Amino acid sequence: MGKTYYCDYCDRTFKDDYDARKKHLSSLQHAKNRADHYAIYKDPETILKEESVKTPCKRYMTVGDCAFGSSCRFSHYTPPMIWELQRLVAIKNDKESLPQPKNGWPNPDDIIKEYFENAMIDLSSTEETNYPVWSTSSRLDDYSYLPPSLQPVTPEKMMDSNFSKWGS
Sorting pLDDT into bands at 50, 70 and 90, what band is 121? Predict the structure, then answer.
């Protein structure tokens, strides 16, 4: 058998000769599959520009399905989806307006300085930490046959724990 050509976009295999490959690569189905593949990687700003020009697809908004799919000339984005795109674009633009280090990484000295300036825990404070007190039902005391992992936890049991009994 001769060589075969596999198209990742179309998920199909065919005979690998010049004419067959040229015919496949120039087909509308291949062009559509290729465009759909790369549409996944568009940035939110580009999608927002394209979708804000389009009018909403009436069939997609009412029925939830459109025969044209991703090649529809109308927008399949709902208003909440458009708002989310606008939010993502705004966040991206805010990040770009901040001064960035030359190599793209934050300066470690700035991180350390910020940590010690804004330390949340003050070690010099003498406030007492209150831990939650868990109460257990008194009915559990009647079940002496419970495995140790399910028995109520008490300070006495923690001090006198025999972990070798847990597997029995």
Answer: low
Query: Measured in Å, how far apart are the chain's first and last C-alpha atoms?
Result: 63
**Secondary structure of residue 1 in the 3-state scheme:** coil
Q: What is the C-alpha separation between 70 and 143, in angstroms, rounded?
A: 63
Between CA 117 and CA 123 the distance in angstroms is: 14
Rounded to 5 degrees, φ, ψ at 136 are -115, 155
Is the distance from CB of 72 to CB of 66 less than 8 angstroms?
yes
Whole-model pTM: value is 0.46
Q: How far is C-alpha 24 from the chain's CA centre?
A: 35
DSSP 8-state symbol, 94: H
> Among 9, 5, 35, which residue's Cα sits nearest to residue 21?
5
Neighbours of 47 (CB within 10 A): 17
CA distance 99 to 140: 60
Q: What is the pLDDT of residue 13?
A: 92
pLDDT tens per residue, range 88-107: 888 888 876 656 556 667 77
Residue 59: name the closest of 69, 71, 48, 49 by CA.
69
For residues 65-79, average pLDDT: 87
